[in-house]
Amino acid sequence: INLLPKDRYVNWSTMAIAANQLPGVTYGMLKGGNVRVGMEDNIYYSHGRLAKSNAELVERMVRIIRELEMEIATPEEAREILKLKPLK
Q1: pLDDT range class, residue 10, cuts 50, 70, 90
Q2: How many structural domains does the chain have?
Q3: Are 4 and 12 within 8 A, CB to CB?
Q4: CA 20 → CA 9, 11, 17, 38, distances in Å?
Q5: 62 in a structural domain
Q6: Is 56 domain-assigned?
Q7: Is residue 7 part of a domain?
Q8: Which of 10, 24, 41, 87 is least crowded, fewest Cβ atoms below 10 Å from its Cβ?
Q9: Do 12 and 34 contact (CB within 8 A), yes or no?
Q10: For residue 40, is it within any domain?
């Protein structure tokens, strides 16, 4: 994070795998990054408990973001941030 350019905006995201997912993405978010969570990187919701679904992992991160009074991008905003074409 300290190596990111200071003289311009840099759009960056953070992800982590397995048990490091929740603390890793939360730290990255607090440092200004976007987050990515999901079962492609982590199949556990907590120690020893498999996630019921990808949505369960996403919903937990949404709760954390809201508790910290931070903004959550809409799907349209996320597509714009990632420079993806709008859905038709």
Answers
A1: confident
A2: 1
A3: yes
A4: 27, 22, 6, 12
A5: yes
A6: yes
A7: no
A8: 87
A9: yes
A10: yes
Tens-place pLDDT, residues 13-57? 999 999 999 999 999 999 999 999 999 999 999 999 999 999 999
Residue type (1 letter), 24:
G
Alpha-carbon distance values, 68 to 41, 51, 84 (Å) = 23, 23, 28
Burial of 60 (0-12, 13-18, 19+ CB in 10 A): middle
Q: Which tokens is 47 given? A: 């120690």
Which amino acid is located at 52 in the chain? Answer: K
Query: With a threshold of 0.90, does the pTM exceed it?
Result: no
Residue labelled with tokens 């991008």: 73
Contact present, 87 and 79 (Cβ < 8 Å): yes
Give the Cα-Cα-Cα angle 41, 87, 22 (nearest 5 degrees). Answer: 20
Distance CA 20, CA 22 (A): 6
Supply the range of the domain harboring residue 23. 13-81
